[in-house]
Design brief:
Strand content: 25-35%
CATH topology: Alpha-Beta Plaits
Structural class: alpha+beta
Number of domains: 1
CATH superfamily: Cysteine protease Prp
Number of helices: 2
CATH class: Alpha Beta
Amino acid sequence: MISAILYRKDGRYTGYRASGHSGYAEAGSDIVCAGVSALSITCVNALESLLGVETDPETDGETGLMSFDLPPLEGDRASGAQLLMGALGQGLSDLQEAYPGYLTFEIKERRK
């Protein structure tokens, strides 16, 4: 199962972590894994190409890991990053609803 978490602090998204494999189908044919990957990679690429936000994601294909934290941002870049992270969350929530048992998605508050 894939576990995906969006992190927030003070009502603002601060980071993301997804890991695991869905087990929906064989590698290369797994649409749940492909969906999570497409959403995650698109978010990271849009943060960088549209907003100039470097996330330096940690990835590991073996474990299905993708993890990144947003740097401190202000103004339009902060607003844009929040919108992109919210879109990522919406997509993950929709996937979880469509494929229960293959993906868990949650939003967690950060304490630090």
